[in-house]
Amino acid sequence: VGELLSYCDLSLSLSLSLSLSLSLSLSLSLRGSHAPFTPWNSLFLYSPPHRFGRPGVECYCQHESGAAVIQLQFLINEGALVSALADDSIHLWNLRQKRPAVLHSLKFNRERITFCHLPFQSKWLYVGTERGNIHIVNVESFTLSGYTIMWNKAIELSSKAHPGPVVHISDNPMDEGKLIIGFESGIVVLWDLKSKKADYRYTYDEAIHSVAWHHEGKQFICSHSDGTLTIWNIKSPAKPAQTITPHGKQPKDGKKPEPCKPILKVEYKTTRAGDPYMILSGGLSYDTVGRRPCLTVMHGKSTAVLEMDYPIVDFLTLCETPYPNDFQEPYAVVVLLEKDLVVIDLAQNGYPIFENPYPLTIHESPVTCCEYVADCPVDLIPALYSVGSRQKRQGYSKKEWPISGGNWGQGTQIMLQVLYKLKTAKVFEKTRSKEEKPNTEIVDEDPFAIQLMSWCPDSRMLCVAGVSAHVIIYRFSKQEITTEVLLEVRLQYELNDLESPEGGGYQTPAPPTPSTSPSPQTSGPQTHHSTSSNSSDGIRDNVPCLKVRNSPLKQSPGYQVELVVQLVWVSGEPPQQISSLAINSSYGLVVFGNTNGLAVVDYLQKTVLLNLSTVELYGSNDPYQRQPRSPRKSRQPSGGETPGPQTKSPAKTASGFRGSISRNTSELSEYHHSRHTLKYCICWTAQSVLNGCFTSFCFLPTVLLSVCPPRAALPLDNRDNSFSRSRSSSVTSIDKEAREAITSFYFCETYTRKTDSTLTPALWVGTSLGTVLSISLSMPPAGEQRLLQPVIVSPSGTLVRLKGSILRMAFLDATGSFLPPPSELWYEPNAPANGEERERVRKRRPVSVSPSTSQELNEHQYAVVCSEKQAKVIALPSQTCIFKHNITETSFVLRTDVVQTVPGICVACFCANGHIMTLR
C-alpha cells in the first residue's frame, strides 16, 4: 500500500522560543491508495520538526546545529522530508522509522536560501536564493546538478536592476516543465526548463509575497505589499486580467483604492460544484488600528473575515486530492498562530473551528501551573471523560478533527489526552467599560489566569487560585443545576490592639450558623455597598479585581462552583497575590496564604475560621525582630476616613465584605450563556500598611478584622537567609521580600505537641523564612452536626526551622509508609432528597487514611520537610530532627515532592541549575 503525501509551502515567522528565532508549519496527508478518492488521514508538522497526527501520535526531533528551520518539503510517496535552515543548509530526513533521522545534508556557502520547492512526484528540488538565482538539487543523491537559473537570464535583458530575492517557485499544474519564479520586486517569470529560457515575464509595481496556481494551469494569482491580488493569464503578460483589493475602500470616482496592509499569503482552490476559494492572510485596511489578525475567506460573492487571537504565522488548505491538476475540493484550513493551532471547517456555514484534541498549544504555551496525580481512583477518569464528552461545544465544527494520521507506534514521546475542560473565567463578569478595567492593574496580562491548583481525587473537590487574588472552589456533580442569589447580608465587627496577644493571642469570632433555608422575606438583599467605593480622587477601596456574576447561572454536569473567595483593594492598595493553597475534603476546609498571612475557610458552612498574619502565628515566641517596613507615600483617605498614626499600634479599620448565598432550584431556567454558577462569595481585604493594620477578612455575613501590621523579619540567630533573595533588582521587589510569606500547607492527622499521645487533625504551615508551624483543628461530629457546629482552629506554635523557603511537607508512619492527607469519598451533591445517595450523604463520615494501629500502639510518625536549601526528617511527637541534608549550596530548589518509587519513599528535587536529584 503506497502513501500519498501532500505538501504545502511555508512562510517565515518569528518565534518566542529562545533556541529558535523562526518557526513555520506544514501538513502531511496520508491515505491508503486502494481507492483514489477515499478520505485522507493527515499529519501536521511545524518546526523544529514536530509531527502531530491523530490524538496520541506525536513525534519530535531537532537539528544538531540548532539553526532556525525556514521551510519544510515532503518527498511525496517516499516517507521523507527536506528541511531548509537559516544557516543555508538543507537536510533530508527519513520518516519511515520511529525516530526520524537525517540521511543527507547539503550546505550553501556563498548564497542565502530563501525558498524551496519540490514538485509532486519529482526527484528535483528547486532552491531559490537571496541573489535571485535558482539551484536544482537531486534528492536521491542529494547533490547539486549542473542546472542553474541565473537571475539575469530570467529577467529582461534590457533591465539592469536586480529583481530581488526569490520569494516563490512552483511548477505549472498541467506542465511540470514550466516554472513560475516570483521575485520580491514584483517580477514573475514563466521559465521553460527544456529550452532554458523565459517564455513570459509579468511585471507589477508592487512587491510580491506569494503566488498560487489555478488547477488548470492557465491562470495564477499573486499577493502584493499594497493589499492587492492580481490574477494573470499566462499568455497575457502585459497586464493582470483582474486586480482585487479585498479590504480596500473603492473610491466613487473610479480611482485606485487606498493601499492596505500586505497580503502575506494567498491560496487559490477550485471546486466542481461552484466558485473557487481564495484564502488569504493580511491585507486589512490601515485604518483598522487595534484589530486582531485576520484570515479572509473569499468564496463567490461572499467574503468572511475570521479574527484570530494571535498573529498568523502561516496557513494551508486541506483538500480532497493531492494532485495539483485536479479540482482541489477544499474542506478545511489549518492556521498556525504564534501561540496556537486552529483548524477551520470550510464546509459548514459560518466557518466554525474544529475543537483541538491536543493537550497543549504549540510555540509559547499558556500553561501557568501543572499538577500530576498518580494512582487515581478507578472511577475518576471514566467520570471525567463522561462529562467532558458531553460538554456543549458551541461554535465548534460537528466533524471529527481532520488531522488523524499515523498510529501509536509512530510517536516518540508520551501524548496526553484531554478528558475535561473547565473555564474559570465564566464565574466573573466580562469587562464592558474602561471604568472597570483599573481594578485588574495588578495583573500584567490575563486577569483570569490560574496560578495555583489543589485537587482531591477521592472527593473530586477542586480549588484554583487566580492571579487576580481570587480562589474558586468546585464540586463535581453529574447533574445539571441552576442557582440564583437569594440573600446578601452585611455585618461589621472590629478587633483592635492585637499586636501583643495574651494567652496565645488568637481571638477569632465564632462563625455564624448558616440558615438551612434562607428566605428573602426574612432579610431582603441589600443593594448598596457602604464600604465599597471608587472615590472621586481615584482611590479604590473594598472593591475586588474581578466582578462575580450575580445573576442565575446554569451549570452543566461536571465541576460546578461551590464558593468564590476574593481579596479586595483597600485604600488604594491592591491585594497581594495568593502564594499557597490547599483543600481537604475530609475536614471541609480550604486554606490559602500570601505575603501577609493566611486564611482558613470552611466551605461547608461558608465561614472564615481563621485569618492571621504570619507574625501572629508565632504568638509570643516570634524568633524574629520585626521592624516597620519603609513607609509609602501618603494617600488621601476615601469615604471620609482618616489615616491612622505611624506607630506600632495598629489603627482601627472599617472594612466590609460582600457575599451571596445561593441554593439549587428545581426549575432550571434557560440561560443562554454557558456560565458557571456562583454559590457563595467571600472577600478578603488586604489592608494597607500606611493605615497600620495587617489584613481584614470579609465573609458573608460580613466580618471586619484588624490585626497586626506586617513587619520586616530579622532573624535573631545567624542562620543563612540567602534563600530570601529578590529575583528583581527593583526596590519594590526588595520591599516585598522583607515579608514572610506563606509558601506551603499540609493537612494531616498527627501529633501537634510533644506531649500528645493520640493523633489529631492538624494543618502544617510553611513560610518563606524556613519556618514550619502547626495549627490544631477540632472537628465537630460528622453528619448534620458538621454543618451546625463550628470548627475550632488554634495555632500551636513553631515545629521546625530550615534554611530557605519551605516547599513541601509530607508524613510517614512508623514503618516508613507514605501517609497522604485524609480525604472523603465522592458523593453526588445534587441527589434527590429521598434518594439513596442523599441518605448516604447524611450518614457519611470522613475517611482517614492514617492506620488505626498507629493510634492503638502509640507508634511514632515521621514528618519530611523540604525547603529551597535543606531537607529534614522530624520524629513525632518528640519533634526531634533525626536526619538533615543540605541539598545545594550554590543553587536552590525550585520544586520538590515526596514520591513512592520501586526502591521506596524518596524526596525528588529539581534545582535552578537544572539538576534533578533524589534523596532516600
Automatic annotation (TrEMBL):
SUPFAM superfamilies in the cross-refs: WD40 repeat-like
Domain Lethal giant larvae homologue stretches: 245-352
Keywords associated with the record: Exocytosis, Repeat, WD repeat
Biased composition (Low complexity): 518-527
Residues of the signal peptide: none
Record Pfam families: LLGL, WD40
Source species: Pygocentrus nattereri (Red-bellied piranha)
InterPro entries, sorted: Lethal2_giant, LLGL2, WD40/YVTN_repeat-like_dom_sf, WD40_repeat_dom_sf, WD40_rpt
Name of the protein in question: Lethal giant larvae homologue 2 domain-containing protein
A single GO cellular-component term on record: plasma membrane
Region (Disordered): 498-544, 620-659, 829-854
Xref: PROSITE patterns: WD_REPEATS_2
GO terms, molecular function: GTPase activator activity; myosin II binding; syntaxin binding
Family, as annotated: Belongs to the WD repeat L(2)GL family.
WD repeats: 201-242
Record field: compositional bias (Polar residues): 528-537
One of the GO biological process terms: Golgi to plasma membrane transport
